[in-house]
Recover the amino acids of this structure.
DNA sequence: CGTCGATTTCTAGCAGCGCTAGGGACAAGA
DNA sequence: TCTTGTCCCTAGCGCTGCTAGAAATCGACG
């Protein structure tokens, strides 16, 4: 009984260890450096142990993605609630989003660019993903015009931010003009004369 | 002399063959299926031959990207010049861009998402890339407000399209609402009351 | 206390990847 | 015919994600 419990606890602990190691390794050296052998070394177990916890490397990455998304959702919420007006809130959330992407590129990639089979845009999507989207939704809501599709509008805002971030991070947009582009995007997104 | 020329011609021919094979394989089965072994099989030469033409797999992908970008630039231009008003032209270019991404996902990926060390956003960027960007620029120009930074504005428009496309294609945005999102994006991008 | 049975973990290996060293075939010139 | 130089292929390196099967460990029971 207690033995069983202890084992489960230890297993859960080790699982956390794997996810943490993957995350730290990715943040330090990028996802290319995260190989199953390297990860096994890091946690001081052999490779097959990883597969007794996760279906494969993709599942480990998905776990990191969920963790990262919780962090993102928190930062978006903080930015939104700290802002004064609705307009400022939208801008603040946009800035927080792109700032997250730049500060934590590995996390951003595993959530939003690498394919890692997490369910998105469905009820089965992890809570963290829905929370993050919810933050965007709440920021977009007040500036929506009468009768606009809120979901689609939020998705559109999100996509704009995502595009700015990914093109910049892949070297396709010059880094130095990021703030200007972001300002233009947010400015064009808010209907003129909205408070 | 003539022998030399014939050899050079044959070499150039084989190089074209490699790029075409890579492109077709990628379009048919995705870039994961494009391995150097598979490519060598396809062109009926051994693997090392590829490396006598290109520095590596990345260089082959870059060549495909340039080809694909020429195609994209052509489609953007056609869309732009066929439109009536400036506003319609911007919308048409946006639709043409996302349509290209959906119709030729492998080409789109190699140009805009996979990293393939092509110089972007510099004078050394291949002409095809500059042409495609130029088409966007010409579509954005007429709807820009007084004194707006044209380059940054175009980049922002591009980023929005790119975000919509990549999030949708990776399954993060539901496919069915694409048209609605695209309409919202373009609508918000054009300042109210612009002709 | 010693042995059995089950669970856990490791060693070793598979098939694939991008890439390359070195040798053999083949054609052009003496 | 023999040499020279070019071209191309075979074979292999070190790496990847992943897994089968042996080994070791630990709890339970006689």
């Amino acid at each position: 009984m207690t033995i069983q419990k202890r084992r489960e606890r230890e297993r859960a602990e080790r699982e956390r260890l794997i996810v943490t190691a993957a995350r730290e390794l990715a943040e330090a050296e990028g996802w290319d450096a995260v190989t199953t052998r390297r990860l096994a070394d890091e946690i001081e177990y052999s490779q097959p142990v990883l597969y007794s916890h996760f279906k494969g490397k993709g599942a480990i990455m998905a776990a990191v993605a969920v963790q990262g998304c919780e962090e993102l959702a928190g930062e978006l919420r903080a930015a939104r609630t700290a802002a004064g007006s609705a307009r400022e809130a939208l801008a603040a959330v946009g800035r927080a989003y792109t700032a997250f992407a730049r500060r934590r590129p590995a996390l951003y990639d595993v959530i939003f660019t690498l394919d890692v089979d997490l369910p998105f845009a469905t009820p089965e999507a992890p809570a963290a993903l829905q929370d993050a989207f919810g933050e965007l939704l709440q920021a977009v809501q007040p500036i929506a015009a009468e009768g606009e599709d809120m979901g689609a509008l939020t998705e559109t805002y999100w996509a704009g931010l995502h595009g700015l971030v990914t093109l910049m991070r892949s070297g396709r947009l010059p880094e130095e003009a990021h703030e200007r582009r972001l300002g233009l995007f947010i400015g064009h997104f808010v209907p003129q004369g909205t408070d």
Summary: The interface with chain A takes residues 112-113, 115, 120-121, 148-149, 151-153, 155-156, 158-164, 166-167, 170-174, 177, 180-181, 184-185, 188-189, 191-192 of chain B (CB under 8 Å). The two ends of chain B are 62 Å apart (CA to CA).
